[in-house]
Amino acid sequence: MRNPDDYLDSFLSSFSRTRRGSSIRETTLPRMVDIEMLEEQFMSLFFPGHQGTGSMDSLRKTVRYSLEKAARLLLDSIRLSLHYENPEMSDEEVSRIADGHVEALLDNLGAIRTMLKKDAEAGYEGDPAARNVHEVILCYPSMRALTAHRIASFLFKRGVPLVPRMMNEVIHQKTGIDIHPGATIGESFFIDHGTGVVIGETTVIGSHVKLYQGVTLGALSIPKNGCGQLLIGTKRHPTIEDNVTIYANATILGDITIGHDSTIASSAWIKDPIPPNSLVLTSTPEIKVRPKKILPQ
Q: Residue 5's Cα: distance from chain center in Å?
C-alpha cells in the first residue's frame, strides 16, 4: 500500500467544511456517547434512587450531583452543536446562547418532572400488571422515552440544533420507541410495551392518551411548494385529542384529528378524521382450521 498521505488530498476534498479552514473545531460534532451519559443523568435527576444514585447523605445532595453533571454535559453538547451549525459564530456568542438554553431548561425542571410523575401515574393506573408507580419508572420503556422526549422537545422548540434529535435516537435504540422531539405531548401519557411506536414531528397529542406497541402516528407525504421544495415544518401528522386509546399496530396518517374519548382498534389503518366518542373497529379476519396432512412412514 502507498503512503497514506498519497490518499489524503482526494479524500479531504469530500469534506466541504475544510474549504473554509483547517480547524478541527469546525467539524466537531456532539458525541453520541455524551448524549447517552446525559440521558442517564436526567433519569437519575428526575427519579433519584431509581437509578442506583440514592446513596448520598440527602436528597438535596443527590439531586445537586445529577443536576450539575447533566448541566455540564448538556452545555458542552449544545456548544458543539452551535459551533457546527454556525462555524462563523464567536466562542463568546456560542457560550452566551448555550448558557441561555441550559438555564431555561433548568428553570423548567420542576414543571417537566411534574409531567413525568403524571406519566408514571398514568402507566400505573392504565396497566393492571403494574404493582406500583416505582415499577413503572424502573421497568417500563415508555418512562425512559418520555423523560428524554420532554427534555428534547423543550430544547428543540427553543431551536437547539442536533442535540434533541440525538437524544431521540439514543432512546430509539434503547427502547424501540421513536418520538420526534418536535411532537407535542400532553400530560398523563402512557405507552404500554412500547416497541415499534413511531410519533412524527408535527404530531399533537392531548392529555390522558394511551398507545400500545407498534402504533404509528405518521405522515402521508411531505408537501412541496411551487418550486418542488419540501415545505419543512408544515403540519403533516395527526392530532390526537384527550382520552384516546390506540391499540397495537394501528396506523394513523396525515394531518387529521382523532376526536376525544375515542378508541382505535388494533391494526386499524386511518387516513380520515375520526369524530369524538368513536369506536373504530377492523373486520375480523377469516380464520381457517384444517388438519395437517400426515405423511406415510
A: 42
Q: What is the 3-state secondary structure (H, E, C) of 180-224?
A: CCCCEECCCCEEECCCCCEECCCCEECCCCEEECCCEEECCCCCE
Strand, helix or coil for residue 33: helix
Q: Which residue has the cell 420532554?
A: 150
For the chain, domains (ranges, CATH) are 23-176 (1.10.3130.10), 196-281 (2.160.10.10)
Burial bucket for residue 273 (CB in 10 Å: 0-12, 13-18, 19+):
middle
- Residue 185 phi/psi, 5° resolution? -125, 125
| Helix extents (H) in the chain | 5-12, 32-46, 59-85, 91-107, 109-126, 133-139, 141-157, 163-175
pLDDT tens sequence for the chain (297 residues):
678 888 887 787 777 654 444 555 555 889 999 999 999 999 999 998 766 655 556 888 889 999 999 999 999 999 999 999 998 899 999 999 999 999 999 999 999 999 999 999 999 999 999 999 999 999 999 999 999 999 999 999 999 999 999 999 999 999 999 999 999 999 999 999 999 999 999 999 999 999 999 999 999 877 666 666 666 778 999 999 999 999 999 999 999 999 999 999 999 999 999 999 999 999 888 899 999 888 777
